[in-house]
Amino acid sequence: MSGFCHRSVGLALLVSVLVGPGAEVARAQFPQRPQYGNRQERGRRQGMAEQSNLPPVTAFGTVEAMAPWKMQITTDSGQAWLLQFLPNSEVNVMGTAAPEFLAPGQYVSFNAHVDKHSSRVDEKIARLKIFTPNETRILGAFPRGTGAFAAGEGSQAESREDSGAGEAPPPGTEPFQIAGRISSVKNGKLVVLAPNQYFKPSLKLELAEKPEIELDITGSALYQLARKGDKVEAGGSQLAPQVMQVHEAKVILSEPLGGIEKKRRKGGAASDSGDENQEKSPEKKIEKEEKEEEKT
Question: CA dihedral in degrees (97, 245, 87, 261; nearest 10)?
Fold first, then answer.
């Protein structure tokens, strides 16, 4: 599947606790993705298709409405599709995030020059990625140039000089690709735990004033991060005309996560009330369409 882009909200223990729209999403923890090899992954997807015993189908479009475990999209050709998600649906969310979205429990990867003796990062980090670990996106610290793949950074990260804000590398430091779990975050300062053999695993670092935060996370409950206007690519089984049981989906956020929450707070109580009404209406819209489908 190919890609598109989004924004706001998080979940508190994402796969175990589901939160509705408008909840405090900036504090999200992302569980580690199951360790599937290519062969096991193909077998898992084939198993889902065989169990459903329904014709396979794909859909590409824009999010129109959301409801618990359901999403309505409009395809590029103008067709309305209802997507039904399952606990074992594989959902990948890609886009960007605001610094306010960062929270303990998230996994991040970045490039930095590290003082191995003091386990210190003196430069301010201008680029990082929030990701979900798997068999190819592993946690650790990897010396730059060794060819190691640091949790989703890959060749794009290696093509850049560093993740810092543009200043010269501090003396006595060495460049690393780092992938770890956030243990604390406050006022742009993070503590990241990254197991490795080169320095102490606990790294303190500070973000640049306007850091670039990329998002590439996976989990069945993450479909809830989608909002109206986001792009979706989905594949699964056809339950009825233009109704899909989703096996896998990619959500491309149209706005940075964290940005919408900030805008709502500025609007005050009256604005918040209006947002709640807007969030409820999509669910009613989907429920109405479901009832109409049952009648036909």
Answer: 30
Q: What's this model's pTM, rounded to 2 decimal places?
A: 0.68
Q: Which of 223, 217, 219, 232 is nearest to 68 (CA)?
A: 223
Spatial CA neighbour of 73 closest among 237, 234, 216, 287: 234
Residues of the chain with CATH 2.40.50.320: 38-97+219-295
Q: Are 151 and 181 in contact (CB under 8 A)?
A: no
Helix (H) or strand (E) holding 269: helix 259-295
What confidence score (pLDDT) does residue 41 get? 54
Q: How far apart are CA 26 and CA 14, in angstroms?
A: 12
Amino acid letter for position 285: K
Chunked into runs of 10 residues, the chain (296 residues) has average pLDDT values of 39 34 37 45 54 84 96 94 96 96 95 90 94 91 68 40 53 89 94 94 93 95 95 96 96 86 39 36 47 51
Q: How far apart, in whole angstroms, are the C-alpha atoms of residue 219 and residue 87? A: 9
What's the pLDDT at 193?
96
| Second-level CATH architecture of 38-97+219-295 | Beta Barrel (2.40)
Task: Kindly report the number of other CB atoms within 10 A of residue 220's CB atom.
Answer: 19
Amino acid in the structure at residue 267 = G
| 57 membership: H or E segment, kind and range | strand 56-67
* DSSP sequence for 189-232: EEEEE---SSS-SEEEEEEEEEEEEEEEEE-GGGGGG--TT-EE
pLDDT computed for residue 172 by the predictor: 78
Among 105, 125, 130, 117, smallest CA distance to 15 is for 105
Q: What is the Cα–Cα distance from 142 to 163, expressed in whole angstroms?
A: 14
What is the Cα–Cα distance from 22 to 39, expressed in whole angstroms?
39
